[in-house]
Amino acid sequence: MAFLELKQVEKTFFAYDSFTTAVEEIDLTIEEGEFISIIGPSGCGKSTLLSLISGLLLPTSGQILLDGKVIQKPTPETGYMLQQDYLFPWLTIKDNITLGLKTLGKTKQEEMNLAFQLLETLGLSDKKDHYPAQLSGGMRQRVALVRMLSTDPKLLLLDEPFSALDYQTKLKLEDLVFTTIRKHKKTAILVTHDIGEAIAMSDRIILLTGRPGRIKQEFILPDDLTVTLPFAVRGDLQFNPLFQKIWKEMESLESESQGDANTV
């Protein structure tokens, strides 16, 4: 049995006098411990797909199963990391990272130890009594990662978590997130517009078509790249050919979209 299964998933949004289909005919199987990236043209439904997997949205048709159970609402088994850190500015870092645990009623010291250990691992143990406004953007995203991992979810959903950071910080954080996720043997799905980031971090890359998003193609990364730090992958001889191959597929999708628009 697959860890995560999407079976003929479709999501349509209805308004009073119109409707929009964001994704359709999505069939996808993800094994435990895999790191998957989802890429595609703007507006193709990448973030919608994450919201469906998280249980924040329900599919119009089809099923999504996590460990054999149909996802019908958000659960602690899934963690979500967004473009913005969404830390509560009036809470200290210590209180921000333990908020999820307290919400779940996990207030014993041994249950909170993972959060504090992660904070130390990511080099922020000396910031636990600070407030978010006192931290840089990269530090805040590291705190958001700790908050997500502290409840020990089975599945991690990453919606462009590095896009608001400067390039140097982004590259450093990619390595840090990659290492942390691999160390804790988590299953992760990353939505990104950055082809290089997808290659550097993933086991597989799923390319979606323009709206409504369908799976156009799947790229399986070489085994040696999947165990290499993202920064080092970007300098590997295999990186550029892979980038060019995926780029050409993306370009063809853009051309198809423009052609369809011109015929309307």
Plain-language structure description:
- The protein is built from nine helices and ten strands.
- The protein has helices spanning 46-54, 93-103, 109-121, 137-150, 167-183, 195-201, 223-226, 230-233, 239-263; strands spanning 4-14, 19-30, 35-39, 61-66, 69-70, 78-81, 155-159, 187-191, 204-208, 215-220.
- Helix 2 (93-103) packs parallel to helix 4 and helix 4 (137-150) packs parallel to helix 5.
- The model has no long low-confidence stretch (mean pLDDT 90).
- Pfam families: ABC_tran.
- Keywords: ATP-binding, Nucleotide-binding, Transport.
- Residues 4-235 form the ABC transporter domain.
Corresponding CATH architecture of one domain: 3-Layer(aba) Sandwich
Uncertain residue segments:
none
The total count of strands amounts to: 10
Assign a percent range to the helix content.
Answer: 25-40%
Strand and helix order: EEEHEEEHHHEHEHEEHHH
- The separation of the N and C termini measures 44 Å
Principal-axis shape equals globular
Tell me the number of helical segments per DSSP (H or I, 4 or more residues long): 9
Organism: Salipaludibacillus keqinensis
Keywords: ATP-binding, Nucleotide-binding, Transport
GO molecular function, one term: ATP hydrolysis activity
Protein name: Spermidine/putrescine ABC transporter ATP-binding protein
Give a quick rundown of the structure.
By secondary structure, the protein is an alpha/beta fold. The protein has a domain at 31-59 and 72-77 and 153-263: P-loop containing nucleotide triphosphate hydrolases (Rossmann fold), CATH 3.40.50. 39% of the residues lie in helices and 23% in strands.
